[in-house]
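Retro notes, item 3 of 5
We never archived the inputs for the acetoacetyl-coenzyme A complex last cycle. Fixing that now. Sequence and ligand:
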Amino acid sequence: MVYENILVEKREHITLITINRPKALNALNSKTLTELDQAMDEIALDSTVRVVIITGSGEKSFVAGADISEMNEKTPMEARYFSQLGHKLMNKIEALPQPVIAAVNGFALGGGLELAMACDIRLASENALFGQPEVNLGIVAGFGGTQRLPRLVGNGRATEILLTAEPLDANEAYRMGLVNRVYTKEELLDETMKMAQKIASKAPIAVQLTKSAIYKGENMDLISGQAYEAEVFAETFNTEDRKNGFKAFLEKKQVVFQGK
Ligand code: CAA
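Structure as it came back at the time:
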């Protein structure tokens, strides 16, 4: 598929998606949301992809939010549809079988932070800036910020971030667990790639079922979550990867997983 606003590059088992509207600091307009949605559908059906990375083009910005110029023209009905388009994408990223890492290389504001929060792991460069500035514009966060931010950092912190619109730098985001690691600008993509390669070297079915159990569990009580975990645990026992993984351990050999 040829895209206008995103670059999709496959490096062995890793797909790197770069949001590529640098003149608008990679702001998410409808076309970009739709292209990302289509890219997710392609990846979901490609069993050779084991890990996805999402980043922004240029030195300055991951994503500086939903596109304010486009939103300026919208009626309330169109705004609702735009919000739902964002939710559809964010939920699709979360439900993608493969893990998704956000390499946050600069501004992650509004829809940019919401996109990063829909990813499974967030790594940031030192110049990254996180925030939900929607109330500065007279609107509410619309791509899941009011829902995912409290789940990630707790109600008190999320409310402060959403209501004051004050941005957080990478170290503050790290301290509150919003990002897993912080690197220099120069290191970020290489380090993200290294983490992606590490995950891609693990048993792919086990990786995907682990991701699935984490999200299923969020919406379940402990006992139901454990019941789901027991099911996916059992499912892995039929896989070639599990058989080869156990055999290699017992024979003190290295294993290369096939995703079968
Ligand atoms: N939408 C559309 N265009 C944007 C944009 C956005 N979210 N953010 C930046 N741009 C554009 C600017 O309009 C500017 O375009 P021109 O050169 O054509 O004027 C270009 O990107 C560069 O931006 P700046 O000159 O402003 O760059 P800066 O370095 O001085 O400032 C910034 C950077 C602090 C990120 C500033 O651009 C800014 O505040 N952007 C808006 C951030 C924001 O409010 N995001 C939330 C949007 S609402 C949202 O996301 C709702 C939701 O939840 C769905």
